[in-house]
Structures are given as C-alpha cells and as structure tokens.
Amino acid sequence: MKLSRIALAGGVAASTVLLIAGPAAAHVSVQPVGEAAKGGYATLNFKVPNERDQASTVKLEVNFPADHPLSSVTPQAVPGWDIKIDKSKLDKPLEVHGKKITEAVSKVTWTADDSEIAPGYFQQFPVSVGALPEDADQLVFKAIQTYDNKEVVRWIEEPTDGGEEPDSPAPVLKLSAASDDHHGGGAADDAKEADDHKAADTAASTEETHAAASSSSSDTTARTLGIIGIVIGVAGVAFGVLAGRRRSA
C-alpha cells in the first residue's frame, strides 16, 4: 500500500515536470497596425519568435493567398535582412483604379544578411498591403521558418471553425468591417489626420491675420506719408508767396 502511494506520487510529479517543460505556444503570426478593413489598405506585421534554444532563425517565407490576390504588397526594409518578392500571373485580372492588374505578389522572403533571430528573441517584418478583399472575413498566410541548423518549420496548417488549434498553425489575418475611407490604420490615424487638418487650418488663419495686420500697417504708413507730403507742399507754397512779397516791397 505504501509502495503504491509512493508510485502514484512519483507519477503525478513526473507529469507535472512534463507539463512545465512543455514547449511554449509561440508561432509565426500576423497582426495589423491599427485595423485591417475589408476593401482597404493596411500595414501588417509578421511576428517571428525563435522557439529553439540552440539555433537562430535566418529565413522567413510568407506565401500570400492565391484565392484573394492583393494588388499592392510593399515590404518595409528590415536592417540586416535581404528581401525577395515573387509574383505570379493571375487567372483573373484585377481592376484597380481603372487599371487591369495581371500579376500579384505570391511570396515574400526575408533572408538574414548580417542579422538573425537569436534564441529568446523575436523579429517583426512589416508589409503594406491592399486592397483587402471585401468578400472574405480572413486571410491565411502560410509561412516557412528556417533555422541556421537547417531545420525548417512549416506554419501552414489552416485552423478550422470550432476546432482545436493545429500544431503548426498558419498566420491568419482577421478582417474588420469595411470603412468609408478604405485606407485602414485605425482610430489613431484618423485622429492624427484630424489634428493635422486642424493644425493646417490654424496656420492658415494665423497667416491670414498676419497678412491683414501687415496690410493695415502698410495702409496707415502710406496715409501718414501722404499727409506729411501735403503739409510740406503747402508750407513750400506759403514760403514762396512770402518770399515774392518781400522782393516786391
């Protein structure tokens, strides 16, 4: 009986150690800066954590959804990383601002040049994208992470509604309801834009006030000089008359 209790306690302790030592739930993910509204443009951050203790991440490949191609994909430069953009022909051309787009970005690859993602760190890779589809609630970006020990982790499993998260889930971007301006960026950008307009209006009003004051000052000066000129003219005429009378006398 005593041995059984000891064995049971040992089993519970072992299970606890396994649970604590289990891998952290970290994977490649995608998040918008502000919001990603349907039909609009957005800046996305692909967040890449390093899940290995003895290896560094040296490459990231992000595949863009072929079922909802994006007409504009512009990655931001990341110090220490080379960027390669792959495009593919579209089965059905996109029409953007009156122009037909026949190809779209299919993959963006970041390769470490003189940098890397060391153990215990993460790196974000920003990309400006648009126009986001209006007929979808989310976009799936399948990603491939490569370590300097040649290990490759494929984050390509698509989540299912109501199901458990896969072991290697693909980054999923949730789309919000369409906005009026179709530029995305969230309330912070809207507030900033409003502040910019307010500052511009204030500057214009100040400039107009200064211009009016300057104009008023110029008018006053001109009038003063005119009056002085008239006084000097009258004095000159009077002096001339008096001088003529003295000569006659």
UniProtKB/TrEMBL annotation:
Residues 1-26 form the signal peptide. It comes from the Bacteria. The chain crosses the membrane at residues 225-244. Residues 159-218 are annotated as: Disordered. Keywords: Membrane, Signal, Transmembrane, Transmembrane helix. The keyword Signal applies. Residues 27-175 form the YncI copper-binding domain. Residues 179-200 have a biased composition (Basic and acidic residues). The keyword rRNA processing does not apply. Pfam families: DUF1775. Residues 201-218 have a biased composition (Low complexity). This is YcnI family protein.
